[in-house]
Amino acid sequence: MTEESITLDERRGMMAQRATEIRRRLFHVEVDRAALKERRGELEKFLLTAPGTSWGEAAEKARYLITLLAGTRAGRNPLRQKLIDAVLNDFRRLSDGP
Asked: What's the pLDDT band for 27 if we cut at 50, 70, 90?
């Protein structure tokens, strides 16, 4: 037995190394996607149970929903994109925020 560790990836061909790297990256993407889904669920529960106490808070909830819409097929329509941008700009302007 030897004291030195062997890196198996170095002993594989380029195609096998590439396939391994793709599998690793896909695994990390799936882990991140699951974590995002869980955090999004927690946020939505919070937004649902916590009533807004000001117009600014109501606008933040609306901003979240509009952002979700923007990511859908219907929201990617160029005219709707302009409308979404206009509404989000209105929210920023009227809330005196960044």
From this structure: very high
